[in-house]
Amino acid sequence: MPADLLFEIGCEEIPAKMLARQLVDVPAFVAARLSAARLEHKGVRVLGTPRRLAVVVKQLADRQPDLHEEVVGPPVSAAFAPDGTLTKAGQGFAAKNGVAPESLQKKEVAGKKGQYVVAVRDVTGQDARALLPGLLAELAASIAWPKSQRWGWGETTFVRPVQWLVAIHGGEVVPLSWAGHTAGRHSRGHRFLSPGPVEIASAEGYVEALRAAHVVVDPEARKDLVQAELARLERETGLKVRRDDTLLGEVIHLGEYPVGVAGEFDPAFLGIPEEIVVTSMRNHQRYFAMEQTDGTLANRFATMMATVVKDPTVVTKGNQKVLASRLTDGKFFVSEDRKKSFDAWNAKLDSVVFQAKLGDKAKTIGDKVRRLEKIAAAIATFASLDAPQIELVKQAARVCKADLASLAVGEFPELQGVMGRHYAKDFGLSPEIAAAIDEHWWPKGQGAALPITPAGALLALADRMDTIVGCFAVGLAPSGSADPFGLRRAAIGVWQILLSRPDWSQLWTPLFASTREALSEQGVIVKDPGAIEEFFKGRLRGILTDDGLPAQEVDAALAQGFRDPVDARERARACTKLPREAREVFKRIANILDDAKAKNLPLAETVDTGVFQDVESRLWNAFSAEQATGSYPELIQSLVRIQPQVAAYFDKGGVMVMDPDPALRTNRLTMLSAIFDRYVKIADFRLLAGAA
Amino acid sequence: MYLQDLIFTLQSFWAKRGCVVEQPVDVEVGAGTFHPATFLRVLGPEPWNAAFAQFCRRPSDGRYGENPNRAGAYYQFQVGLKPSPLHVQDLYLDSLRAIGLDPAVHDIRFVEDDWESPTLGAWGLGWEVWCDGMEVTQFTYFQQAGGIDLMPVTAELTYGVERLAMYLQNVDNMYDLQWDKNVTYGQLRHPWEVEYSTYHFEELAADIAFRNFDTFEGECKRLLARAAGPLVLPAYEFCMKASHAFNSLDARGAISVTERQRFIGRVRAMAKACAETYVASRARLRFPLLPKHLQQAAVDAYDAAAEAGVNAGALAAARAVAPSAEEIAHAS
């Protein structure tokens, strides 16, 4: 009878992020293993806490189905010699499939001519009881962890030392040993609240049995519990918990039995930049910030204990003490930083290496900053900024990385730019420059905000292009899935910014050119600009297809130009309106013209209408009646209107383009070329036929 | 609980569980991990269980005695358990109970914190242990030291003595801690902090420290290459001294970012060479901390595998005795 399976690996505390990852990855992994083992089931569920990872398989079969398998081999003529004995190929086939040579059968095979050798295998399904011990042990050993360890004298590696195993199928213990432990039916309760073994009768009762032992093993239930606790703290304090889904995702995996407490800190700390306060709480302590109803930061925080204690105020006081010392540090960093200046920090950046391979004249962040000033100033003219605005961009460029040398950013690297914005105001720089410093790091991730100010956007473009071109120039292009310098993300950022600013959509070309120039002045020469262009094109393709445009349309549009992303997007969108018939006839024209070009056939200056046949005249008149220019959708509509005449031109009763008479041939090619040229700027029709 | 009683309690707790109570190393170190009782003893197949308080110097963290939580030197209480017992977390929690931190009263958690020392060529996995949100211990399963894979694995527990004492005595400033009933931490340590911050940040003669670094490195190499056989213990002492010279220069701001990596690489090269030489020398001594009847098997396995390198030899020696692990000393 099929029955539920439970396999629990008890473990010392698993890092929260790794646990979160396994909860997502392991179900498919287990399903694949079960399917390879031919054990049917009704679904895999993975549960876990910091101290355990558990797999529950619903209605797992108690045995494999019997297997009847027919494997088709070589043709009979190849498997048997004329004397009826098996050839080498025939023997090899039998051996490979583990069947006796005399059991090979000769059969007709659907879709093939002649007779083929067939190996017939009948395998009796094995009991799950026999399979599961090996399967589960191997499963445990093959879970992939980003980092794993050994312990004691053992050879086993796992994320942390394994402490116990529970394996139950249909109420029976699955007898297996792994990592120095023999599986049984005893799990363990909460380390402090219910120490000791917890007997698990069956997989069905697992969650409840642990719940009674102060372990909330279902991550969803734990998330609900944490949110309920946060809601309770909101009611008790009259404040709101500031939403932070990433932190929430981590906090639910920091304990088996979360209980909330709220603490407070000296309101004087609200005088330092809010980001320092929030980041100190979040990164070091995993506290949630709390805010007033109007969104301003309150001097309170919410945190989750991992246990029930006698007196929560003891724990609250302890946490407050730690936070006070963290915030004192943060305050110290900011007050020390405020005694410094952007110039002093910039001087330090001359000895901070950005990318060593760029060489001695270009490798430091200071060198990068000098490039950024040049690049941003150059593209600012193309972006139609006036002289005072350009001056502002240059000023912003000079200070945009300065805060990297500040103590605050040293402590909280993710506040790069954010602290620069604060310090720029402290140092008396204009709000525009302050904003540009911060925004030049934007977008900070997928779906994150794009730069708002022109100066911020120009610097964001220059910085990313500089990183990409520099890395490509010195052989650090991404390969496969490896992209250690985040170049793909950088290129996507460039496109997102350009796509969001239609006025700047032609900025890519001068951006690329001025970046290469700035790098070459520092001795970094791009040998293969085509590779960088292809790389950018690939990223734009990704953005457009992610937006829902069909890949074929995007490829066809990008083949005719990618440097203006707004234009390319419009062309790809226009292509989606093109019916199949139109695609096919235009692909045909493309092929004919390619063929003519390959043969070096000449074209004439003008089309001679005097030698036209009827079908040619009809096409030419239809074409000539169309507007020569227009928006892409208009051009597509125009193309659709003349499509029947193009089709007639090629159909029976049409003409032969490649006429033996060179004059006729040249005239026909000239006409097709004239028609083709008007539409081909939209897309490469060779890539478009076939779908729609 | 006075600070010195905290140390006494931990010492006696771990002594009862089979640890040698060592004394601090008499050379400047940045962490207890540099103590030969840790860095060298974790290598090879021999068991080793030790506990000791170590005075640690971190010149860059000096604050002229003005920061309540940070200082240019402080005390670590370090425990090394080799092999790591399966119940090491329970032993550790008992040690917290012994100093008055009861998990029924406090929120104790094991939060991921992997450890790596680029200068020692060492890394391990583990946690920082939180007590009510405060990190009170670094808990690490050593996987590699001096570039050598560790088998058996050592569990290293590093208690932050001042932090724990501040918590237990409920004071907000480390200098207000009572060392004993008469003397405060500040009375003992504050002048040192003021003078050494001034020294490291303002007075340290960089040219002398650079020369010292070169001298120590040269001595380390010379002693390891000695024709009559290496002197690994003095050589390792020079490695520790070079590391401290580097830390001092770093605090003085005398080392640029690019040079920094190079200096770290030089210390690591010393640590690695010492580690390899140490394992080889222990093999020559027949791994004396192993039970007598297992020594021959370990030495034979080492000799057979060491042609492929000390790392292979160390692993082979450990594997040869692992089946008899129950007969080898372990903390309990």
Summed up, what is this model?
The complex is a heterodimer of chains A (about 700) and B (about 325). By secondary structure, chain A is an alpha+beta fold.
Secondary structure topology:
The complex is a heterodimer of chains A (692) and B (332).
Chain A: E1 3-11, H1 16-36, E2 44-49, E3 52-60, E4 67-75, H2 76-79, H3 88-96, E5 105-108, E6 115-123, H4 128-142, E7 162-169, E8 172-173, E9 177-178, E10 181-182, E11 186-188, E12 197-199, H5 206-212, H6 219-237, E13 240-241, H7 245-251, E14 259-264, H8 274-285, E15 288-291, E16 297-305, H9 312-338, H10 342-349, H11 365-382, H12 387-399, H13 407-411, H14 418-426, H15 431-439, H16 454-473, H17 487-500, H18 508-521, H19 529-546, H20 551-558, H21 565-575, H22 580-598, H23 614-625, H24 632-650, H25 662-680
Antiparallel strand pairs in A: 1-3, 1-7, 2-3, 4-6, 5-6, 7-8, 9-10, 11-12, 13-15, 14-16, 15-16
Chain B: H1 3-16, E1 20-21, H2 36-39, E2 48-57, E3 73-82, H3 88-98, E4 108-112, E5 115-117, E6 122-131, E7 134-145, E8 148-149, E9 155-160, H4 161-169, H5 185-203, H6 206-224, H7 232-252, H8 257-284, H9 292-305, H10 310-321
Parallel strand pairs in B: 1-2
Antiparallel strand pairs in B: 2-3, 3-9, 4-6, 5-6, 6-7, 7-8, 7-9
Helix pairs in contact in B: 5-7, 6-7, 6-8, 7-8, 9-10
